[in-house]
Design a protein that fits this description.
By secondary structure, the protein is mainly α. It has five helices and no strands.
């Protein structure tokens, strides 16, 4: 799965330039209202092809946090989890 450019999605929703926004900017600092944030989540979920767990989403406090969350969802399981079922011969 390709990465998702959260800044582009926000720019599309609000027609604003967020290319220079700092990672610790809150979504409201970027001018997003509650309906905008819902639209953002729906758009990202559509791009991901699955729902973002509410528990993970509710902990996001900034643009950088949202980018990290989406990046972790795009990457999927960590290497450790991918290798858990494999046997290692000694």
């Amino acid at each position: 799965m390709n990465s998702i450019d959260i800044r582009k999605v926000i720019a599309d929703i609000r027609d604003i330039d967020v290319s220079t926004a700092v990672d610790d900017a809150s979504l409201s600092d970027l001018g997003l209202s509650s309906p905008d944030i819902v639209a953002l989540v729906v758009r990202v979920e559509d791009l991901l092809g699955f729902s973002i767990p509410y528990e993970r989403l509710s902990s996001v406090e900034s643009l950088g946090g949202l980018e990290q969350l989406v990046s972790s969802l795009v990457r999927g399981p960590t290497e450790k989890k991918k290798n858990e079922g494999e046997c290692v011969n000694s």
